[in-house]
């Protein structure tokens, strides 16, 4: 049975026995079994799944609030000079440009680890493991900045509304001001379509902001001031 958790009129979480987060009585909890694959690790070592874009930004605002920072979103999903992620104080989702820069730093490598394709010992991809794996399980698959799991494990939402790249040179692009779907990057444990999905430059456009499943998660960032 699947249920939707709604906050401020938006679906922030889908609850399903196949997803990471469960709900019993009036408490949220981590499901004990998630596709049956935990590799001897507790479930809280895995990336969260079943969370929508709304849920991801609500988490960012919550974390900002409890750490004394100004929440960035507060229900505002526009991107413009008055609501610019790069100028924010609180936690937020990375822009597509930030995400790709961190993944590809500091050259034009195809994958975060280099120019050769995915291998089972460096990335959770191609259904090799049948589900998510603990965060940081593949240090040899990280890029030069040492950031883990930029490829594989779960797709990650970006802050940008979906759009097609142009050839124009833009500093700190934020994408369209508004839209109906979001960009996500990185590939997941389930993808079998090809190695290109795990490349630094690949992105999916057209993910509805109310979408969630067992292959999508998120990571957060904040502007250094």
Given helix and strand content, the structural type is alpha+beta
The largest sheet has its strands arranged as 7-6-5-8
Q: Tell me the distance between the termini.
A: 45 Å
Oligomer: single chain
**Major sheet details:** 4 strands, mixed
Described by the principal axes of the CA atoms, the overall outline is globular
User: Order of helices and strands, N to C?
Assistant: EEEEHHEEEE
Residue stretches low in confidence (pLDDT < 50, at least 5 long) are: none
Q: Total strand count, please?
A: 8
Mean pLDDT: 88
Q: Rounded to an integer, what's the Rg over CA atoms?
A: 17 Å
Total helices: the number is: 2
Helical content (DSSP H or I, runs of 4+): 10-25%
Strand fraction equals 15-25%
Quick description:
The model has no long low-confidence stretch (mean pLDDT 88). With 225 residues, this protein is α+β, with helices and mostly antiparallel strands. It has two helices and eight strands.
Give an overview of the whole structure.
The chain has 225 residues and is α+β, with helices and mostly antiparallel strands. It is built from 2 helices and 8 strands. The strands form 3 sheets. A 4-stranded mixed β-sheet has the order 7-6-5-8, with no helix packed on it. It has a two-stranded antiparallel ribbon with strand order 1-2. The longest helix has 14 residues, at 53-66. The chain is globular, with a radius of gyration of 17 Å. The model has no long low-confidence stretch (mean pLDDT 88).
